[in-house]
Amino acid sequence: MNVTHPRPRTARTAARTAALAAALAAVLLAGTACSSKADGGSTDDAAADGVKSGPGISDKTIRLGALTDLTGPYATLGKSIVQAQQMWADETNAAGGICGREVEIVVKDHGYDVQKAVTAYADIAPDVVALPQVIGSPVVAALLDDIERDHMLTFPQAWAASLLGRDSVQVLGTTYDLDMIAAVDFLTRAKKIAKGDTIGHVYFEGDYGANALEGSEWAAEQAGMKVAGQKIKATDTDLTAQVSALSKAGVKAILISAGPAQTASLAGVAAARGLKVPIVSSAPGYAPQLLKTPAAAALEAMVHVVSAAPAVSSDLPGVKRMVASYQKAYPGEPVDSGVLSGYNAAQLTGADLKKACEGGSLARQDVVKAHRSQKNADTGLGTPQDFTLVTAPASRSTYVLKPDAKAVGGLVGVEEAHKAPGVDAYMAGRG
Q1: pLDDT digits (tens, 9 = 90+) for 132-182
Q2: Does residue 6 have a cis bond before it (omega within 30 degrees)?
Q3: pTM for the structure as a whole
Q4: Annotated domain spans of the chain
Q5: Which of 39, 337, 376, 401 has the smallest C-beta neighbourhood within 10 Å, fewest atoms?
Q6: Cα-Cα-Cα-Cα dihedral of 263, 266, 267, 270, to 10°?
Q7: 3-class DSSP state for residue 96?
Q8: Calpha distance 133→136 (Å, rounded)
Q9: CATH no., domain 2-8+41-174+316-372
Q10: Cα–Cα distance between 352 and 374 in angstroms, integer?
Q11: pLDDT in the model for residue 91
Q12: What CATH number belongs to 176-307+398-430?
């Protein structure tokens, strides 16, 4: 799927294609070669206003890209993020744009298929300056080298620690391992688990699940507990076998690092089988739409969510403004965590572009430089974040949330953002 906002670009694309063909012909005739800086670095081109440009930048337009999932396991998340980021673009353009230019967002659906995402990136990369959205740890992992080569500032909607360490890739908030350390800490403080207990952990294969398991196993070892792991695929939506195995293992609680469908199945089957133990999910494993399924009662009774972002039902002024704007822009659409996550990433992208403009260059590597200079970035949608440390998560603090069908977004806050004990020691040990 290729959706371009806010207007078609057929004529402009045709003109650009013709210009490129003419330029190539000229080079071949001359028998010489020149550097086009195709790697996304700074160019010597400057717009009429004197601002240095590059891919995705014209005198009138800033083009951003989104590689999303609108047809796969995270389709509800993808839709929310796309709409939230388009809302931000519309608001930004109504206020005069950025650096005197209108913002356009080009959206491509990869359906959580890595090969489709690689193809989509190759198609979109020459014409955008940054990616405020890329869904999926395996997708981002497959694109890391290309993103870094192109100096393409990228905000993954994925939180695997394996995505850290690249100048152009910014993992927002916490990583999956830190979330699971926070989950074990919450369960321990709530006296749901104790020394000697076994904790179940259902997790997706790949970077997402592997990184989450690192955190749960580390936290369990520190607390004198054991982890009984159950690895699943994204296509596994009936967790009856996993629940049976965890019940046999005598688990006192279950962590889940998967998608919403898997969380619903886990809670529903566990409740039906009499395994009524607390369940804690990472943020990607929950969606408010689950509260309209047969698993709703089990979810409200058994599940908590650990997240670097607050619930969209939060009283934070920035969150309340965002919710009101989204409900006006998309009446009847659910306001879930994807809305907040997408809007937050778009706001941060906008701040980076403005800072780069102030420095006189919208070239990709200068946008990345502007981003990495921000130590206390605060959009009003959660906790401030530090983007200066390339190898570390932008935050180490997590909220604890709980499903509630009566709340906007289907979640309410249980605990405000805080850093779980042991997180700093874990990070130090990881190097």
Answers
A1: 999 988 999 999 999 999 999 999 999 999 999 999 999 999 999 999 999
A2: yes
A3: 0.85
A4: 2-8+41-174+316-372, 176-307+398-430
A5: 376
A6: -170
A7: coil
A8: 10
A9: 3.40.50.2300
A10: 9
A11: 98
A12: 3.40.50.2300
